[in-house]
Amino acid sequence: MRGGSSSSLSLASRVVLPRTTQTRVYTTRASSAPTGSVRVVTDIDDTVKSSGGVKLFGIALGGIDTQFKRGEFYPGVFQFAYELSKANAKRSSMPEKVAVLTARAKEFKFALAIKPSSKISVAFAEAGAKNGAKDWGIGNVYYGSVLEWIFQNRKGIRKFDNFEIMMRQDELSSKRKSQYILVGDTGEKDEEAGERIARKYGDSSLRAIFLHAVSEDKDRSTFKLPKDRDQSGVPIFYFRTYVGAATKAMKNKLISPDGLQRVVVQARADMAKKRPLLSDSACAEIEEDIRIALLERSKAMRNEIGFPSLTANFALTRERLTNQIQSAKLRR
């Protein structure tokens, strides 16, 4: 078994999955909030931070995103991960730490290892501390190998294998079955890994998949976001920014309206710091997603406190007017 962890766990041989399965476009639904333990599982390059689209000998070093400079964290990413973790934790318990599935080669851990002192680990920990969860941050990290760096099409298989290792470790340590929310991107076989996991385990283990839609073009003015869809009962959400991801999470009851607001606030603060480094299209995407987020949050808050929507009010008024007209005709 090709394990990306130092664990000595042995797993059954990898199940060969069919190359083609039917999927359908996913329509946002008012799903019930998950119960029990939910762990956020994330990729790093082009998911948490930009790869910058840098290549070596024609091979991408981590991803394809050129919209942000290499190493730049995406606005709102840490708050989004925290909100997912917190909203799906038991009220009295600490949110589950984030697990990392990365294509980074374990043979290069001397240079690429994610340590507690690494910038990304510190950023996750600071997000937890800021939100009152001082022990929250990155947990176990599962690496790839040089083989996947050379043969890029194997990355999805490696991440699928490492996901299964993580599941077994979680079951042994907690003595119970957990659910997971996978966060990745469209450029590093995370989509394939998510599909494999969904096909094998369905929504009993995988609550949702969020995929950061990346491209090699700095100008994304004509970029079209893929349509959300469903794979074996697991919703797959595509997003341009973490504000957009948080909006979809709120609409599907994976985070609260207040959680969405906190992601918006943090994304704005992050963007203000990075603005001189951001492209016009990056700024435009974030601003547009913030506009949509605030509208959706407003709708959710109105429904939450019992106020009908404007559409419902209009329909009610129209019905009353129709009844009054009919009554007037009868009186004649």
Sequence of secondary-structure elements: EEEEHEHHEHHEHEEEHHHH
Mean pLDDT: 81
Q: Report strand %.
A: 5-15%
Strand order within the widest beta sheet: 1-9-10-8-7-2-5-6
**End-to-end distance:** 85 Å
Any idea what the radius of gyration is?
Answer: 22 Å
| Fraction of residues in helix | 40-55%
**What shape does the CA trace take?**
globular
Low-confidence stretches: 1-31
Described by strand count, sense and barrel closure, the largest sheet is: 8 strands, mixed
Number of strands: 10
**Structural class from helices and strands?**
alpha/beta
Number of domains: 1
Please report the number of helical segments: 10
Summarize the structure.
It contains 10 helices and 10 strands.
Describe, in plain words, how this protein is organized in 3D:
Helix 6 links the parallel strand 7 and strand 8. Helix 7 packs antiparallel against helix 8 and helix 8 runs antiparallel to helix 9. This protein has one domain. The protein has ten helices and ten strands. Helices cover 42% and strands 15% of the residues. The strands form two sheets. The chain has an eight-stranded mixed beta sheet, sandwiched between helices. It has a two-stranded antiparallel sheet with strand order 3-4.
